């Protein structure tokens, strides 16, 4: 096929005729409301709290407000991400050829169920509302350590500019963002409720944050060609496929080392690595499956491993509280 023909084909893929109706289901898909993995950190935060704080009505109220703020900010982030992916053709390239497994309908611009203008209006409105909600969270919090307030603002700013504005996910910082948002959204609400964070809290925040980063690495592996064509810089687009598998293995190993090392260093109870053994098994499973080439199956297992991590951390925190 000629260069002109390839260009026309790419344009046809990413410029479907949108209905323009913009029903609620299409906006829900734009906001990716079915992807709740970052929000699960609030369960970990709640179980980390001392029992005297955990059951206060004010605690439930603040956590509910944080949840709402997180959902709206993520809606802005993924809305802008879809607009950018639609404009540069990467979503059509990454989803159009694999719709059965990756559900093309989750990309309403590519699927033609929303227009670009509708998606942009939604994303800007979510940005304004999400920023206001986070300001309300800080105002309502019983504690306001400066570092936590700054970290909250940084998380909001980075989320909105993930694929828009500074486009940090296009500039080589995607992997750092994926882990950083989970860490931030665990440490910030905990600190706003308690005034600080212990070593064990930091360990759990990093364990939680590394979950989305790990399953994101498999997405990057699958999307490397489309991302490279769109100019999106990730580790997967910069190195060979074998080198990226080594990188995924190193990041997986780093999480497992954190589990063992935190107990050895005294930041976590001695029994913490034992409690996390189911996670270790799942991490090794998706690593082997990914190395064998079934990237999307490995990604699914990595997503489930992140959710299992939350369950294990909740049980560990409740156990630690009972033993204290």
UniProtKB/TrEMBL annotation:
It is a multi-pass membrane protein. It is found in: Membrane. Keywords: Membrane, Transferase, Transmembrane, Transmembrane helix. It comes from the Bacteria. InterPro entries: UbiA_prenyltransferase, UBIAD1. Its main location: membrane. The chain crosses the membrane at residues 35-53, 59-80, 122-140, 146-164, 176-193, 199-218, 246-264, 270-289. Pfam families: UbiA. This is UbiA family prenyltransferase. The lineage of its organism: Bacteria, Bacillati, Actinomycetota, Actinomycetes, Streptosporangiales.
């Amino acid at each position: 096929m000629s260069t002109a023909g390839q260009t026309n084909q790419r344009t046809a893929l990413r410029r479907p005729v949108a209905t323009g109706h913009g029903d609620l289901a299409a906006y829900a898909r734009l906001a990716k409301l079915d992807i709740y993995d970052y929000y699960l950190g609030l369960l970990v935060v709640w179980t980390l709290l001392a029992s005297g704080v955990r059951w206060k009505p004010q605690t439930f109220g603040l956590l509910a407000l944080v949840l709402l703020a997180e959902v709206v900010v993520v809606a802005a982030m993924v809305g802008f991400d879809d607009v950018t992916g639609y404009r540069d053709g990467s979503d059509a390239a990454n989803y159009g050829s694999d719709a059965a497994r990756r559900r093309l309908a989750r990309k309403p611009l590519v699927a033609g169920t929303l227009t670009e203008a509708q998606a942009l209006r939604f994303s800007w409105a979510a940005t304004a509302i999400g920023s206001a909600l986070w300001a309300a969270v800080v105002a309502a919090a019983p504690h306001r350590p400066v570092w936590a307030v700054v970290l909250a603002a940084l998380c909001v700013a980075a989320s909105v500019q993930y694929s828009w504005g500074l486009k940090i996910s296009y500039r080589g910082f995607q992997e750092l963002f994926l882990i950083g948002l989970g860490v931030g959204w665990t440490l910030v609400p905990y600190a706003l409720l308690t005034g600080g964070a212990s070593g064990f809290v930091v360990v759990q925040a990093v364990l939680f944050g590394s979950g989305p980063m790990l399953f994101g690495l498999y997405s990057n592996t699958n999307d490397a060609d489309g991302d490279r064509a769109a100019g999106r810089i990730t580790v997967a687009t910069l190195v060979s496929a074998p080198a990226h598998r080594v990188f995924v293995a190193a990041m997986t190993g780093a999480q497992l080392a954190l589990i063992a090392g935190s107990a050895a260093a005294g930041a976590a109870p001695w029994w913490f690595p034992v409690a996390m053994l189911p996670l270790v098994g799942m991490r090794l499973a998706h690593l082997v499956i990914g190395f064998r080439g079934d990237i999307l199956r490995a990604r699914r297992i990595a997503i489930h491993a992140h959710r299992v991590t939350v369950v294990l951390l909740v049980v560990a925190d409740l156990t630690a509280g009972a033993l204290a």
